[in-house]
Amino acid sequence: MPETSASGSRTIRVAVNGTEYEQSVEPRLLLVDFLRHDLGLTGTHVGCEHGVCGACTITFDDAPVRSCLMFAVQADGHRIGTIEGMAEGETLHPLQMAFWELGGLQCGFCTPGFLIAARDLLARNPDPTEQAVREGLTGNLCRCTGYQSIVAAVLEAARRLRQAPQGKAGEP
Amino acid sequence: MKPAPFAYCDPQTLEEALELLARHGEEAKILAGGQTLGPLLNMRLAMPAVLIDINGIAALEHRRADTKGLAIGALTRQSALEDDADVGALQPLLALTLPQIAHRAIRNRGTVGGSLAHADPAAEWPAIATLLGAELIVQSRARGTRIIPVQEFFITHLTTALAADEILCEVRLPPSAPGSGYAVLEFARRHGDFALAGAMARLTRDAAGRLRDPRLVLFGVGKRPERASCAEAMLAGARPEAGLFAAAAQTAAGETDPYDDLHASARYRRHLAGVLAGRALEQAFARTGEDGHA
Ligand SMILES: Cc1cc2nc3c(=O)[nH]c(=O)nc-3n(C[C@H](O)[C@H](O)[C@H](O)COP(=O)(O)OP(=O)(O)OC[C@H]3O[C@@H](n4cnc5c(N)ncnc54)[C@H](O)[C@@H]3O)c2cc1C
Ligand code: FES
Ligand code: FES
Known about the structure:
Chain A has 172 residues and is of the alpha+beta class. Chain A has helices spanning 31-38, 94-102, 111-124, 130-136, 148-163; strands spanning 3-4, 10-16, 19-25, 57-60, 63-66, 79-81. Chain A has a 5-stranded mixed beta sheet, with helices on both faces.
């Protein structure tokens, strides 16, 4: 059975935002550090490294997870989505637009995590109440905005996504 | 911080995992969702020589419902259960409680077995298992399968009856009696955080309006979740009259043995436990149906 020693490394194949990567990693390499250091995808941020802040939130097989609480070796054969994959070329995702227009960010450190979490929230609940948005985003911390503008931006994006042509709303 | 180096294995079958655990013993740690172990590794509060990642063992992710209740594989993700409407219908307590466990991104990885094996006294799963009277199915290579009743499983803070060479494979929840009403109430500073104190209740009434087999569990207020047995005795067979739930809640709070920590004092926790217990009993009662008619 596969076993990798502490000083050894293992080759993983992983699809990040639709691009296949093959890379050799040591077992203790955190998934977030793999994305940032090995692949240069620095949009995913590292805050607390213990699951509390949500800055490192990515999607793993389409479900949001903390990339500071997974190891790169665990991503072998899986699909990862990061903030770099959210816009379509130069066209921002409606959530990104709403954050921009309504001041859903200040320093921007927490933003990638909020956007990934919010996209999943809207995919599961396209017409959330303000309370549902607040509860749905409690796993993400922001030290700048006071959350009001983030909640407003998510509600506004939800409204636009509901009006968007078929197939767009709720699409991850 | 970053984890200290460890050897990594990812067995694809339970037999392989048990074999590895037998071989490495105390040197090894099981990695399930990593939502508790990950922080411990990152902060180097845990530095196992070997990590045995059980995420590839599909056989531990099963669910089975029959007349004996609901059996849930240890590797089942919290969010998978939360999204399963059948599970919520079979066991209303799960539908009420799962959304209160941590945050969605944590529930997408965190497993039922990991939460039970970790035995945090403020966590929801140990309280659910205690209230419902669960059985825990564990396996080791040396001794095969053991079935541990919940009252023997949780020993104290972060300590269970699991031996170092054992893997928790399944939790079995007995069926919910028709007409039972459930409630879970927690006090946390932020939705999804560990509760400073929590109360879970299940009430069922018979045709004459008397309470049958009432259950009340307080968690986050002691070394492990505990059934409030004196309060349960007050409720059993009683017809709910004004003041009964308040009196039982007061008794329940007196049965707790809370601790001081930086989040709250023991006195405050006991006070919260009493308030939450009273509300949980009222809510659970309001949700009861006549015996046999939900
Ligand atoms: C920010 C944050 C907030 C949280 N809030 C809550 C909360 O409000 N309520 C709550 O209940 N939990 C909360 N948690 C904990 C979360 O629910 C964990 O996922 C859970 O407690 C552990 O499950 P896991 O699968 O991640 O286990 P892991 O972290 O992988 O393992 C935990 C421990 O159990 C052992 N273990 C795991 N599976 C098995 C098995 N099958 N057999 C034997 N041993 C095993 C491991 O070796 C380890 O010691 C929170 C976590 C975080 C990061
Ligand atoms: S860096 Fe992962 S949750 Fe804070
Ligand atoms: S914008 Fe600065 S932390 Fe949220």
